[in-house]
């Protein structure tokens, strides 16, 4: 007959092993779920590329000498030396290098790129929020605690990832709403799922 203490120790070890496997599954679901979201979004929704808006050949092909040439490219002409804030040292250099004006030739196309990129980040934020909330909702209805917790925490991570990408473009009210939503989601996951 087996010693009851040995049987109890084996059961404790089995339970610890089972709990470790559950948490590994939860972590795996959280990571793979968000990688899946990210890869799927990139597959169907391309990010704007700077080179598309400001081709190197068009904006960096030659030195722009006049304000008119600069304006024709959609650039911004500056009468100030673009290195005016740095200490000056007198050296003998060629006349061509003694420029006191500067044309930011890619100014307009750069602004267009920033606008397109901001719109892209906003759309990614919206998509990640929808996917995150859907994952949290799916976690509510699944009875297997490890899978449910993995989906719920994966949804919370999706909310965080989406918010991080758009954070700099958000207004303060939206930031408060996002933070409140994330806090409520975390509290809900803690109460409903970690109680088991």
From TrEMBL:
Keywords of the record: Membrane, Transmembrane, Transmembrane helix
Transmembrane segments: 20-45, 124-142, 149-167, 173-191
Record carries keyword Transmembrane helix: yes
Protein name in UniProt: Uncharacterized protein
Organism encoding this protein: Candidatus Campbellbacteria bacterium CG22_combo_CG10-13_8_21_14_all_43_18
């Amino acid at each position: 007959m087996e010693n009851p203490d040995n049987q109890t120790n084996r059961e404790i070890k089995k339970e610890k092993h089972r709990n470790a496997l559950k948490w590994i599954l939860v972590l795996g679901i959280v990571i793979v779920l968000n990688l899946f979201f990210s890869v799927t979004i990139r597959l169907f929704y391309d990010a704007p590329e700077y080179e598309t808006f400001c081709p190197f050949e068009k904006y960096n092909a030659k030195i722009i000498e006049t304000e008119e040439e600069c304006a024709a490219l959609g650039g911004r002409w500056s009468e100030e030396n673009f290195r005016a804030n740095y200490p000056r040292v007198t050296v003998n250099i060629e006349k061509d290098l003694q420029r006191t004006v500067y044309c930011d030739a890619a100014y307009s196309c750069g602004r267009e790129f920033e606008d397109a990129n901001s719109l892209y980040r906003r759309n990614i934020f919206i998509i990640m929020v929808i996917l995150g909330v859907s994952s949290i909702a799916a976690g509510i209805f699944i009875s297997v605690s490890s899978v449910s917790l993995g989906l719920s925490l994966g949804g919370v991570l999706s909310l965080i990832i989406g918010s991080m990408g758009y954070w700099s473009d958000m207004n303060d009210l939206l930031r408060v709403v996002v933070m409140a939503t994330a806090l409520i989601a975390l509290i809900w996951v803690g109460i409903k799922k970690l109680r088991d």
